Amino acid sequence: MLENIHSPADVKNLTDAEISTLCAELRTRIIDVVAKNGGHLASNLGAVELSVALHRVFNSPEDKIIFDVGHQSYVHKLLTGRGDDFDTLRQYGGITGFTSRSESEHDPFGCGHASTSVSAAVGIAAANKIKGDKHHVIAVVGDGALTGGMVYEALNNCADKDNLIIILNDNEMSISQNVGGLHRYLTRVRTSAKYFGLKAGTKHFFSAIPLIGKGLVRLFQKLRNGLKRLLTSQNMFEIMGLKYYGPLDGNDEKRLETVLREAAKDGKCSVVHVVTKKGKGYAPAEADPGAFHGVSGFDAESGVIKTSVGESFSQHFGKIATEAAAADRRVCAITAAMGDGTGLSGFAKDFPERFFDVGIAEEHAATFAAGLAGSGVKPIFAVYSTFAQRAFDQIIHDVALQNLPVVFALDRAGFVGADGPTHHGLFDVSMMMPVPGMRIFACESLEDMDYAFNKALQFDAPTAVRYARGVPADYDRAIWNDLVGIEYCDCGRAPTKAIITYGRTAINALDAAVTCLKSGTSVRVIKLIDLKPIDMDKLRLLCNNIYDILFVEEGMRIGGVAESLFVDMTNAGLLQNKSYRIKAVESRFVPVGTTAELDRLLGFDSQSIADALTGRAVAEV
Q: Has 363 been annotated as catalytic?
């Protein structure tokens, strides 16, 4: 069935048996590709019937379907003309793991961060009304995204919108209160085709009565709603003035179609609450949906997930945090729904009373941490670099302005590979550098992490510690000369050229220095651990006989360390008779790709760095 699906129109006239076959084939295709390429598995397997029903009821791209976060849009991609390219999922030059406006007209809104779909849908619905467009807007939002406050801001603004349908894909918790057998019976009744037909027939019958018909319709509706309130409690959506359907089985494609058609026919703003099973159809993912939420790859037959060799930065951070909490009762840890991803599962087990998972609410997490710090506690907020962007105002206004000692553990700094432009951690340094009083560390090794967090927990000021995804590069770090906060390594005698860098790109800088030495050029590689402030006396010592400096920064050039250091070195008189060049990410978004591919694309690989230093290529990207 799947090989004959080239557009949403191809699914509209299939029989029930063909739909069942198609759903099975969709699951097989997703499992095979994600096993090879990595990606989000459990959530997509749970949303198969829902995605099929959406495209049978609505007409994309005229009707706009928005997937919150976008990580559960794989079926949507397969049904909208991207089946032939699906093997390139999350690969350089291939299709992305999230929705993207530039990828397809069927992706009306690109995303990668949670809790944004309803706001975008409200905006599109408002635009449709201005243009006189009667098409529908559908936002598919997971229950996890409802832990983010942005959703509630949008819900507060959507009751008066027309042709707007919010689908709550509930795969872990129930929003409505389940009140015994009567509630379950009423749920089955009010989501059935017979119920909708009876309701429409009754309204038509009463309306046809001359003079008093409309009044009887209103009276009937009041009686019905009164009886409903008597028998069942209203949920929050109904209290907010939204039409509510459900909860219903989100893996029952036929019933989903029935309810979606009724919601579309209603024409107002409604919420369709569906309950899906994460990992459905693949036993290992059903048994452990958390492990199969986002995977780097796995053996499809056995379900064994691929793991990296060696201790990752995230795992080491978890050890540091746990040991710090054991030594000091004031230490606590905060995460925004990323406890496992940031390495805090052990901390949560050992110190549950000092572990706080606030949900997908980075803004709240930062201010919550400020409240803890202001009360004498030592909070560590572990957050992916890309998600820290969401709390920028709170970092400035609630933490830094009051000089509160919150430690921000910035995971996944720099390139993150296949998750792509929504997840690369390239803005954190430019974001944190201008903040008064903020201390910043960058870790290239596990030893750097030990040093940085030991310092950070001693400071009586806000501090950020950034580190990359995955496992540190494997090489003999005894080559570094340690000046505390700055390390350096000379390739050749009496170097007159230097590479200054920090974090993951240090290994590329070392390899570049070796390449330069082969052609007779000695190079000093300077690795910064303290990014703010930088000890200018130590830097003066290291640059004393250096006449050509290349700064390599895996981050945005504007507002980055390199630009700031250029000003500081100029003011300190350290750049007299010296050249200073910057290789960083210019004003662009970086695509999907492995770190090696992106290094070559942006000139951060060792050969490009060597060429830039020896003048064989333009240094700047």
A: no
616 phi and psi, to 5 degrees? -85, -5
Burial string for 362-383 (b: 16+ CB within 10 Å, else e) reads: bbbbbbbbbebbeeebbbbbbb
235 by DSSP, 3-state: which?
A: coil
Angle subtended by helix axes 606-614 and 506-518, to nearest 10: 50
**Residue-level length of the chain:** 621
Token representation of residue 366: 């930062």
E-only strand ranges, 492-608: 497-502, 523-528, 530-532, 548-556, 579-585
Angstrom distance (rounded) from CA 229 to CA 179: 13
Which residue type, as a one-letter code, is found at position 307?
A: T
| 187, 160 contact by CB (below 8 A) | no
Pairing relationship of beta strands 497-502 and 548-556 according to DSSP bridges = parallel
- Span 408-423, average pLDDT: 96
Quickly state the pLDDT bin for 233 (edges 50, 70, 90): low
pLDDT (mean) for 143-171:
90
CA distance linking residue 513 with residue 508, whole number of Å: 9
Catalytic residue at 362? yes
Question: Which token pair is 252?
Answer: 């029952």
Catalytic residue, from 362, 553, 554, 563: name it.
Answer: 362
Residue with tokens 């001693």: 458
Quickly count: other Cβ atoms within 10 Å of residue 218's Cβ: 11
Q: Each residue of 261-302: pLDDT tens digit?
A: 999 999 999 999 999 999 999 999 999 988 898 888 999 999
**How many CB atoms lie under 10 A from the CB of residue 434?**
11
Helix (H, G, I), strand (E, B) or coil at 223: helix
The tokens for 62 are 């005229």
What is the predicted pLDDT for the residue at 235?
77
| Contact by Cβ (8 Å): 486, 527 | yes
Catalytic residue among 390, 439, 497, 557: 390
What is the structure's pLDDT at 306? 87
The secondary structure of residue 246, as a DSSP letter, is E
Report the chain's mean pLDDT, rounded to a whole number.
Answer: 90
pTM for this model (two decimals): 0.89
Please state, in angstroms and rounded to a whole number, the distance separating the CA atoms of residues 127 and 505: 45
**Catalytic residue (choose from 278, 280, 524, 557):** 278
Residue with tokens 């849009």: 73
CA 536 – CA 83 distance, rounded (Å) = 56
Question: In three state form, how does the secondary structure of 253-272 look?
Answer: HHHHHHHHHHHHHHCCEEEE
d(CA 50, CA 250): 6
pLDDT tens-digit profile of 236-245? 888 888 899 9
Task: Please provide residue 581's backbone torsions phi and psi, each rounded to the nearest 5 degrees.
Answer: -125, 155
Least confident of 46-60, 121-135, 235-249, 533-547: 235-249
- Decide if 199 is catalytic: no
DSSP character for 99? -
Other CB atoms within 10 A of residue 277 CB: 16
Distance of CA 65 to the CA centre of its chain: 19
Name every residue whose Cβ is closer than 8 Å to that of residue 497 and which is 6 or more positions away in sequence: 516, 521, 522, 523, 524, 546, 547, 548, 549, 550, 613
